[in-house]
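Recap from last week: sequence in, structure out.
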Amino acid sequence: MIENIRLSFQGILSHKIRSILTMLGIIIGIAAIIAIVSTIEGTNEQIKNNLIGAGNNTVKISLMQGDSFADFGFGGLPQNVRVISEKDKQRIIDLDEVDKCTLFRVRDNPMNIFYLNKQISSSIIYGIDEDYLDTLGYDVAQGIGFSEKHYSSFSKVALIDTNMQRGLFEGEDPIGKRLDINGDPFTIIGVVCKRSGFEPTINSVDDYFTYNQTTSGQIFIPTTAWSICYTYDEPQNCVVQAKNTDSMTDAGKKSADILNENILRTPAANEKGGEDHASAALEYKSESLLEKAKQLQDLSQSTNRMLIWIAGISLLVGGIGVMNIMLVSVTERTREIGLKKALGAKKTRILAQFLTEAVVLTTLGGLIGVLSGIGLSNVIANITSVAVSISTKAIVISVGFSMAVGIIFGIIPSIKAANLNPIDALRYE
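Predicted structure tokens:
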């Protein structure tokens, strides 16, 4: 085998231009496939990060009434939804797909929050537990966070995010300031911010209220203090952090199943064989961001598969070129083949020699194509700002495929060489 490889390189180097032109189809095909697959991988990762966020892998499980979020700001609480216990929270944490879990309560755009007699109408207030900030990826940028004492003593303290700090307090230090929440004073003890992500530019109250038409400033209070200003034993929502992005869907669905055990069927609903619209229709549902990402990825891949097939045509053309050149090589070396067979070389030896030469030729083309593909991917990334991710799997498959092309298209010339009659070969001019 080593001798066959040495002879293959010797034959390739003795006809450099011809060998390069022969490999050109293989090089172009492999480079195109590597560039396309790298672009697909990069685009898919970008889609996933844009929809899900880079690295936090969190899934929100909300109490829904039909297709809408359950809103307890108006009307009474449902009688058939129990408060989620610490035992159920631990069951969620113990799931194989889940790393962290937090429970919280929320009010969107509450009308009962004031600062210095100024109503803060465009905001979101959360009642959070001890794990909320860590699970959602918040850091305390200023002041302090909630301590165990704040929870155990039902302290009327609050945290705000950087959006509200910049817009509502106009650069002033908010620590120690008080917010009036439903008639109760809550002291701001800290400012929190996301560890990573988009931050809007807010420099004034006008900017704050303009921006918060779509993205609100946020207020956080301890979940134990929620009943001071809102309803006691209000049902919670949940956020879980999956151990990896691919397990987010399962983490969300399994967590929702556990939470739905806290929703009881009412006797009236059981008698009617149906569900009461105001209560039994409530259900915990998880976000399907990962499924949305997969739908967009599938749409992207279906288009790019066509491009891969088109690039594969150049590999077919390259394979035909290899077969053509190998047939020429057999014709040129007819006397050499005849001499070897006259000296006792078997058909398998001749077959292996020419087949090895075809494989070496296409493998070299494949390796050069891989390097060209990586370079082409980087050029595409720099020129178009499209994310690319070099796929090791695609590289391995491409090199293996180029070797397969050498075997498939080299077999016919190799068989022709092995079947030459030694006497006719020696007499060949």
